[in-house]
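Input.
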Amino acid sequence: MAPKNAPNVLLIMTDDVGFGASSTFGGAIPTPAFDELAAAGVRYNQFNTSALCSPTRAALLTGRNPQAVGMGNVTNNPTAYPGYTTIIPKSAATVATVLREGGYSTAMFGKGHITPDWEQSQAGPFDRWPTGLGFEYFYGFLNADANQFAPALVRNTTPVDPATGKPGYVLDQDLANDAIRWIDEHKALAPNKPFFMYYAPGTAHTPHQAPKDWIDRFHGKFDQGWDKLREEIYLRQKRMGVIPANAQLSPRPSSLPAWDQCTPAQKKLYARYMEAYAGALAFADAQIGRIIQHLKDSGQFDNTLVIFIQGDNGASAEGGLDGLMYEQSALTRSPESFDYKLAHIDDIGTVNAYNHFPAPWAWAINSPFQWYKQVASHFGGTRNGMVMTWPGHIPAGGSLRSQFHYVTDIAPTILEATGIPAPAVVDGVPQQKIDGISMSYSFTQPKAPSHRREMVIELMQNLGVYKDGWFAGTTPGRVAWDTSKDVAVPVDQRNWELYHVAEDFSESHDLASKEPARLADMKALFWTRAAESKILPIHNSTIGVGAAGRPSLATGRDEFLYRSRIRRVPLDSGPNFYNRSFDIEASIVVPQAGASGAIIAAGGQFGGYTLALIDGRPVFGYNAVPPNISIVRADEQLTPGEHRVNVDFVYDGGGRGKGGTVTILADGRKIGEGRIEKTAPRWISHTEGLDIGADTTTPVIHDYASPAEFSGEIRWVKFRVK
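Output.
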């Protein structure tokens, strides 16, 4: 049973939102729900995350440093080094587990991204899914992002596609609806039992999508460009007092172009990307506002601690200098032409695109800081606005808290507020130390010195360390949108910068040359703490360093046999079809009325392949990210009865992402052939998986609509890689 009068806890975290994006912290995007919570509580302007999704989220829930729980990078890029396996150990129970054992009901909505890739299939294990990490109920997605209009979701451990057959569906609205439903259900069935809800909508990570009318609200609002926007945000932040009066605006880096250097066509396209981002964040805020209002209407708000962290890192520059129509183009390293993007400008923010804005917008809305997501060595990657409210415990009025804190500090803050101590043993496993420090002292002591005196951080070889008002960090060795490049300079020879952040809020004055002794001490502190926190060795997992032996259900298999219909097998757990020849063979039965639908499909609208019957005729389609879609159609329909259908794909070779020749056979007889002009060189989708007997979520080709259930009988499907 929970302690008497223990509060409900609502923990909110959005995604890829810069410090200067929201109106609450001086941004140009209206976030009235965030504003209202700030007015009812306090704002924190020196709260830090870990510069990337999975590490921040693991640290948030466990109260331990990311590498201390194996989450030194995203779950998509694990390595064998202890701090980077992406396996949260049993010795690091989440705050959800502790609260559940302490008498709380627990639920999670939205983005997980803390489950190892190889554990995300129907074969489990499920102990590192949200329901195995302390949440009694989960409704959301396991990986990095989701399509707002057609998401691949999970309810507890079952794949679901809630948008199917619902043309007006929007994910953020659905998540809020389900959260409100869960609150009401909980209140009705256990009115005296407090709840812990972790609400992580995944906005504004790619794709930047929202209902058209929300995007249209921002038409023309960013025509002034990123340089002017950043300056406007900075001046507004000063007027609002969310940054110190002496804070300076750090300059635009040489890697980013000035707005005035862009052509009229570029300005038109780039502004539209930003309008979509703004519409997405504003719409998400409105849905969060509905949850807050429901707590008020149901009389539960006054006994609820709300912690709202606006972003799990700084805004993302992963869209590159030109922006992306499809995030998948970057994942597969397939360039998009500017002319194509301009011709499809009206698709930005809609169901037809998976768009990401150009990097300079990220720099602009991270005002007043340098750099962006992935860069743990500078506050542009790690500084996020945060608000806390708790009527009767945290004073209202929106006053500012400037104590320096890290994302690990949230879990111990929650435990202290609820009166539930961190256990020494959970399920028979001794627990490792909690790295976080409770922030509750700051609730009523706005001027109290920070209880956090140190922070050590590493992400993608960007190193940083904080000590008593000073911060030292390495100069980034590559831009965020070029993950294929290694950092050429050895880690022990990297350039370090030094900032007195107690006086230089925005890290505008590098004091490395003036304070060499202090910098040497800071660097020594980093290496000492890095060794203690499993940060070493510093390595580049994005190019495969340390990835040998990575677990996968597909390891060592050249043949995959499926004897029944199955939904959303993660692509990492299915055939490795990239840059190689393969053969698909299916034993099917066509009914008297004929058959249609997908026999096997992997991926979806933004990349994948499918073997289907269209009006009884076998069709093989390969989507190497639009507009690179090739379709080979058989010359004849299949008659009713049993058939063996084969697709033989012979890869051209000579490099990655090349084309190939397709031959379609029915019962050993060739009935079609043609060319696949381009294939995906790698990682075609981390949201949609492999289906047998359907093509769920979104369709690989436009010949059918999802779920494209095969209307005949499937006896088995065999996939052989060569």
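The radius of gyration is 26 Å.
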